[in-house]
Amino acid sequence: MQFLLNQQLITVSHLDPNMTVLNYLREEKQRCGTKEGCASGDCGACTVVVASLEEDELKYQTVNSCLTLVSALHGKQLITVEDLQEGQQLHPVQQAMVDNHASQCGFCTPGFVMSLFALMKHKGPGGHTETEQALAGNLCRCTGYRPILQAASDIMRQGTGQDQFLRQQALTKKQLNAIQTPEIQVLQQEARVCYLPQNVTQLAGLCQQHPDAVLVAGGTDLSLAITQSHQRFPVLVALSHVPELKQCYRQGERLVIGAAASLTTVATFLEQHIPATKALFSRFASLQIRNQGTVGGNLANASPIGDCAPVLLAMDAQLILQCGEQQRQLPLEEFFTGYRQTRLQPGEFIHSVIIPSVTLSQKISLHKVSKRMDDDISAVFAAMTISADPQGRVEFVRIAYGGMAATPCRARHCEAALSGQVITVALIEQACAALSEDFQPLSDFRASAGYRRNVAANLLRRWYFRYSDPSDLTEISDYVS
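Structure (tokenized):
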């Protein structure tokens, strides 16, 4: 595999495929500016920027190097904090941090600098909200946020600006185009190997040849097994270079989402068709995670607290699963079989996600309850698609919860209580009582079982009190406990 480290072409063949970009930089390249704070994607101290070619334009995105495996760098440019300074001249982002005295102990500073660098490279309109989103995944333990935000404000006023990356843009594009290849790439060290297929046919073949291989898309969840549990996977198959799995498009009245499309890509796509999802994705982990994580990965790991599953369950989503050349369609509600268990068969992978009715899905109401607003995991997530006739009689209802059971799942008894009935306060109370038949939640460090039961019912009551204004039903309801 090949990639650019700033402007240096790197060719790698013999390297442990379980190695993260953070460890590669610090151990193999002695680039110690990038720091390890948590090794779990929570603090942003390890933030780096990856530039990729999309429609002959360079797209700069932040990622957590502690969770990104080296295989994800193939065909891209990796930029670290050491690359910003040009000779004795600080990069404008670094200078803004200095001018605003925005560094205290300095441990988090490289991560903030790289997040601000990517923010500066963003060509869209900037503002305070965009700045907060860009920095939501970076933690300053010295609580020095005010001067950091001031530095960000200065940078946004400057715009994209002139720097060495802009001047070398043509050369970078030429180099990246030169290392694109249609062949399967292999990264191997001793008995550990990672295959990098370049199309879905190659992927399907590798999955059949290695049915026990671990598939890695963004790796934002899988890499935790490496960094936290010290596991090592003997055979990996990377999905990040398969273009067919990254496509998102509308097909008639349904939406098709590629399983390996990043959450950032999916957020932009869905916002155009289902506006309620915009606020959801702004609270989905951090920008670094969204740039790397995928919808397919969020579903395949079968976490009971993954935010994608309840939303898609309430939309009656279907999965396209592929094994070899054969594809099958499976309702998402039948996909999860137990805690972190699914119906994926050996050699099979998620090809895409289908949202069947765009018009109906626009009625969805989404609620995320967590201990903090940004970069946090749900204690309870509720997604409700409810439509009624002019008399208030429920015609269609899908209610799904995350954090309430071993898997994300629909509230079947609650739905049955509502279906075909005229919406009243008494009916809503019956539906709330029916939730106790659907879920027996557990207590953990995020929330007690009683708290989860009360929140789940209160979110349904909240939906009712907003029901009188239909315009509210197209907007996300955002709550933090």
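DSSP finds 18 helices and 21 strands in the chain. Confidence is low (pLDDT under 50) at residues 470-481.
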